[in-house]
Amino acid sequence: MNAVRDTRKAPEQPEKTRRSEPRKVGAWREHHLWSMSISLRRLGTRPLGTLLTVAVMGVALALPLTFYLLLGNVQRMGDALGRNQSISAFMKPGQNAAMAETAASALRGRPEVADIVVRTPKDGLAELAEVQGFSGALQSLDANPLPYVLSVQPKPGLSAEDVSRLVESMKATPGVDMVQDTGAWRQRLDALVGVGGRAVALLALLLGIAALLVVGNTIRVDIQSRSAEIGVLLLIGASRPFVRRPYLYAGIWLGFLAGVLAVVLAVVLELAMAGPVGRLAAAYDGSVSFGGLPAWLLLSVPFASAVLGWLGARLVSARQIRRAAAG
Amino acid sequence: MIGFDLVSKRYEGGHQALTDVSFHVDAGEMAFVTGHSGAGKSTLLKLLAMIERPTNGVVTLDGQKLNTVRPGDIPRIRRKLGMVFQDHRLLLDRTVFANVELPLIIGGVAPADRGRRVRAALEKVGLLSYEKQLPEALSTGEQQRVGIARAIVAKPAVLIADEPTGNLDPQLAMEIMTLFAEFQAVGTAVLVASHDLMLIKRMKKRVVVLDHGKLVADVPATEVV
């Protein structure tokens, strides 16, 4: 030791200068940068624990994303299949082409209507003739018993109330005998999607709370295991916010990484579903397409998850550090 | 710089650790506090470090009464102190450099200055070549010197040490005490709690003797034989 100490410089005088204002700002920024890097390094020193926490949180957050994806696609499928579901208005027997055209013209003025096709009794008979087993029976008829039919195509995206209003107005149109709404299943599907949407929102809330608690517990254990270090830091002049900051950043990192994992899992599921849905689309002449999660959602999940992590860490850190300091 | 005026400390369990202790240590002065085990040496340092508060009397540090310090101000005042512990209390998962750097980070020293000051502190304790080592790779004496480097790196006005040579051989103990004396020489107030009478005699510094929490002798450096 003596040999080394021979080259030592003399000690410097005690420091008496106070920090200037710009240095205070600089120090604040440096404290944050230091806390960010030290928290990341700490997570790296226990990779398994970090991985497990991130995995649990990531899967918890991926679940509502997946349900949201499924629900969105059920809605799209309903929209796509319902697009071709027209409402049929059967004219009263004895109505002629001019009367049918008058009724069609009256309905064309309605805002809910996209298109109306007037189908003649002859068209109807031809359609029936194409149905296997009907051609023989139709030949035995003396006259065409079929009425004029107005095939009304509602505008896409109409609400159940709008469709219902359109049906009522069709029933009230002069010359119309009966209205058949083959798209009633859409209303039921919309209601089901509404229930599903609420369920997904509640699930997201519950799993978000679970993710928050997972981070909180991880940070609690981390603080407990570092109580001696916290004691030393406080003794050498660290303030409690300074001691606490790396744990808050650890929560942010855990949340952010879990959010990224959740997005990756959701995208993987999306890709896995794309194939089967493509085949389904082909079966419906391409009218059904697969919709992925929106970019804004994928981008916001890691940040929202980071906020959850910060909240979880904040929830436990102050109390745990107080306890560690007292110990 | 350091002042104890009629300071008493009674712990919650009823143990009377200190009774009416009064003495002052000026800037540029080094004093030993000695006494048998349980005499109150550690309590005295705990009061100075604001780990405990006195039951009666006034403890001052650099003109500030510590009795009335608000909890939020404690970290700022502790930064005026350099503390050396018998068990060194290093962070074992960080390098020697990172351990010594901590008070500078806490104190908000710019990164550009930190490296220079840490290396200067390590050079003073003869451990510059160990900066990348983890504390566990060092001997007890070397760990203690890292603890001293951490205590002096922020150039504190007051250096306090609780049995800093308890785990060291006599030669190392003397070298560390000489190091403390060097800081005293440049204006730092140094207060060392120790029960190593041989070492205290060899250092020829002021000695404050405690017995059952009472100050029984305050021997000036010139009268130490």
Automatic annotation (TrEMBL), chain A:
Subcellular location: Cell inner membrane
The keyword Cell inner membrane is assigned to this record: yes
Residues passing through the membrane, by range: 48-71, 195-216, 247-273, 293-313
Keywords, alphabetical: Cell cycle, Cell division, Cell inner membrane, Cell membrane, Membrane, Transmembrane, Transmembrane helix
Pfam families reported in the protein's UniProt record: FtsX, FtsX_ECD
Residues annotated as domain ABC3 transporter permease C-terminal: 202-313
Residues covered by region (Disordered): 1-24
InterPro entries xref list: ABC3_permease_C, FtsX, FtsX_ECD, FtsX_proteobact-type
FtsX extracellular domain segment(s): 87-179
Main location: membrane
Gene3D superfamilies associated with the record: 3.30.70.3040
Membrane topology qualifier: Multi-pass membrane protein
Presence of the UniProt keyword Transmembrane in the record: yes
Subunit structure: Forms a membrane-associated complex with FtsE.
Job description of the protein: Part of the ABC transporter FtsEX involved in cellular division.
UniProt-listed NCBIfam families: FtsX_Gneg
Family designation: Belongs to the ABC-4 integral membrane protein family. FtsX subfamily.
Protein name as catalogued: Cell division protein FtsX
Taxon lineage: Bacteria, Pseudomonadati, Pseudomonadota, Gammaproteobacteria, Lysobacterales
Automatic annotation (TrEMBL), chain B:
Gene Ontology biological process terms in this record: cell division
Signal peptide span: none
Domain of life of the native organism: Bacteria
Keywords linked to the UniProt accession: ATP-binding, Cell cycle, Cell division, Cell membrane, Membrane, Nucleotide-binding
Subcellular locations according to the entry: Cell inner membrane; Cell membrane
Membrane topology listed for this record: Peripheral membrane protein
GO molecular function, one term: ATP binding
ABC transporter domain mapped to chain residues: 2-225
PROSITE patterns: ABC_TRANSPORTER_2
Taxonomic lineage: Bacteria, Pseudomonadati, Pseudomonadota, Gammaproteobacteria, Lysobacterales
Family membership noted in the UniProt record: Belongs to the ABC transporter superfamily.
Function: Part of the ABC transporter FtsEX involved in cellular division. Important for assembly or stability of the septal ring.
Main subcellular location: membrane
Descriptive protein name: Cell division ATP-binding protein FtsE
Record's subunit section: Homodimer. Forms a membrane-associated complex with FtsX.
One protein family per Pfam: ABC_tran
